[in-house]
Design goal:
Layout lengths: L7 H14 L5 H14 L23 H10 L3 E3 L8 H4 L5 E3 L1 H11 L1 H14 L7 H10 L3 H9 L5
Parallel strand pairs: 1-2
């Protein structure tokens, strides 16, 4: 339904953030997640984006690499919890939009509900040790800020 892209610099940022906010997590497990992401989605890691960084102006100087990677990947959207640091007036001339994950995923659900529900079911079924009941899965989505998505999935929870 979409094609994901990231950079090693983006990986470095989420790893540092996760280690800082969740010190109980095993750093080796975090690194395994990074490696699994790269293995699961071949060609997702964007390189050669650095040349686009210098001309970009954003509220947070340190976020320019994200937009530069989107330019290099010919991406139309940046999916981020931090939409305020990617204002539309800076992105629109580049034909890029920043969108909260909740809005992004809810839109995907609207585009092809059957396919999205199949994917959501597959994701939930992969959660083992222990398995995650549907209501807990929906609660976890809400805790992660995916409130609209959880509400939509609540309607179709038999499919999960």
């Amino acid at each position: 339904m979409f094609r994901a892209f990231w950079t090693e610099q983006i990986h470095d940022e989420w790893e540092r953030s996760l280690a800082r906010n969740r010190p109980e997590l095993d750093p080796i497990a975090i690194r395994r997640r990074r490696n699994a992401m790269n293995a699961a989605i071949r060609d997702a890691v964007i390189a050669g984006y650095e040349a686009h960084v210098d001309g970009l102006v954003l509220p947070d100087f340190d976020d320019r690499h994200v937009v530069a990677a989107a330019i290099a990947a010919h991406a139309e959207m940046i999916v981020t919890l931090n939409t305020k640091d990617f204002p539309s007036n800076a992105l629109a001339p580049l034909r890029i939009e920043a969108q909260h994950p909740d809005a992004f995923l809810t839109r995907l659900l609207e585009l092809d509900e059957l396919l999205f529900l199949e994917c959501a079911h597959r994701c939930r079924s992969r959660l083992k040790n222990p398995g995650v009941p549907v209501d807990s899965y929906l609660s976890n989505l809400r805790k992660a800020g995916l409130v609209m998505l959880a509400a939509e999935l609540e309607r179709a929870k038999r499919a999960l």
